[in-house]
Each structure stands twice: as structure tokens, then as C-alpha cells.
């Protein structure tokens, strides 16, 4: 009789597998609302996306239903961006996320599940405009 794979084992099996792509066109109204929400009225943000806008434009990682079986809540462990090209109004951006690492740690409140993901943002020409590496923590 074989043992049932743990949540961590099932998530590790997803490492490197890209999630479904999400494609969205950058609209001026989106940029304006985002700039207002972050309290930044820099005029360039009316035509060019400010840092971190891409997170609001498209999901940063694929939904992982098996992670919901672990613990009761989520924490954001931080995000790191690499910007390669400006993102402007009218650009069609496709986001593709994948899990790159999964591990457990024991903290003062018990076990924690760490999911490290990367999201690549491409323009309509297939050029990478930005990359995001983030950490989601399930407790």
C-alpha cells in the first residue's frame, strides 16, 4: 500500500509547470486609478505604468487549490521585480506564472508553507517587459 502524497509533495510536483497565461491590454483609466490608489500623481503614470502596476493588471501566480488544504490563512512574503521595458497605455501584456520552489518551516506559531513563484510579463511581440519573484506563505 502506498502512502498518500502530502500537500507539500503535491505542490512540489508543480514546480516548473507554467500556469495558464493571462492577457490584458493596459488602459489609461487603469493607470490613473492605480496612481490615485498609491497616492502618486506623477504625470508620467498617465501614459506609462508605475512600478508594481503589473500585479494589479494580472495575477502573479496560478491558484493552487491544494495549498488551501494547508493551514488557514495567507501571508505575503514579499515580491521582487525586474523591469526590462516600459509598459505603456495600449500595450497588450501576457502574464505567465509558475511555482519555482515549495518548502516548510516551523515558526513560533507552528508550521508554515512557503511557495516561491515567478511571473513573466510579455508584450504582444513576445518580449519580456518584467519579471516578478514572490513568496506566498500559508499558515
Q: Tally the helices: what do you get?
A: 3
What is the β-strand count? 5
Strand order of the largest sheet: 1-3-4-5-2
Structural class: alpha+beta
- How do the helices and strands follow one another from N- to C-terminus? HEHHEEEE
- Report the major sheet: 5 strands, antiparallel
Shape: elongated
* Distance between the amino and carboxyl termini: 30 Å
**Poorly predicted parts:** none
- The share of residues in helices is 10-25%
In percent, how much strand structure appears in the residues? 35-45%
Can you characterise this structure?
This protein is α+β, with helices and mostly antiparallel strands and 139 residues long. The chain is 15% helix and 39% strand. It has a five-stranded antiparallel sheet. A hairpin with a 5-residue loop joins strand 4 and strand 5 (128-138). The protein is elongated, with a radius of gyration of 17 Å. The model has no long low-confidence stretch (mean pLDDT 89).
Q: What topology does this entry show?
A:
Layout: H1 7-12, E1 22-25, H2 28-37, H3 53-57, E2 74-83, E3 92-107, E4 110-122, E5 128-138
Amino acid at each position: 500500500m502506498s502512502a498518500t502524497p502530502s500537500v507539500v509533495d503535491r505542490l512540489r510536483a508543480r514546480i516548473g509547470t507554467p500556469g495558464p497565461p493571462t492577457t490584458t491590454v493596459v488602459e489609461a483609466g487603469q493607470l490613473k486609478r492605480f496612481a490615485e490608489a498609491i497616492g502618486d500623481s506623477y504625470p508620467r503614470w498617465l501614459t506609462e505604468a508605475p512600478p508594481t502596476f503589473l500585479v494589479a493588471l494580472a495575477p502573479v501566480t496560478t491558484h493552487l487549490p491544494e495549498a488551501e488544504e494547508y493551514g488557514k490563512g495567507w501571508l505575503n512574503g514579499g515580491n521582487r521585480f525586474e523591469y526590462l521595458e516600459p509598459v505603456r497605455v495600449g500595450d497588450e501584456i501576457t502574464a505567465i506564472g509558475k511555482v519555482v520552489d515549495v518548502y516548510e518551516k516551523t515558526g513560533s506559531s507552528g508550521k508554515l508553507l512557503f511557495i516561491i513563484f515567478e511571473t513573466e510579463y510579455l508584450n504582444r511581440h513576445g518580449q519580456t517587459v518584467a519579471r516578478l519573484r514572490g513568496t506566498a506563505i500559508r499558515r
